[in-house]
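User: Here's a chain of 145 residues. Predict its fold as tokens.
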Amino acid sequence: MKKIFESIKNLSCLELYFRLICLVFWPIYWYDWIVITIQNYNRILFNMYFIMDTVFIVFLVIKRFVNAKATKWYFGFMLTTSLAYLVSLYSNMIVPRDVTFLYIKIVLCFLMIFSSWKLIKVEENDIGVVGVLSGLLLLVLTYFY
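Assistant: Prediction complete.
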């Protein structure tokens, strides 16, 4: 238990917020996929996630310009992941029949996979595996939607 708290202390607030966004995305996506939804609930859930994700993207960009210590592949991984999640929810919950957002979602999934792969290979950071698997899962779910 002590090791868990020590590893959490080593993470930045932005990293913890990114993990929160990733963890919040999947239950909302599951809710839209499995549960019979009402359009008003979809809008409320999407708006909540939109606010959380937009705040994260703003802080991520500010941190990138203020503190260029973070690597470009890690920044790209975080940015493409958050954008892919946001567009995925928008294309599923708000405009499910819009082909333009379907294509944007597919492109962002491939960008997420690419940046995650570069994160694994160039920087040897294992968190990129999460991005590759998330991108593949989103592509599979998009195909069956």
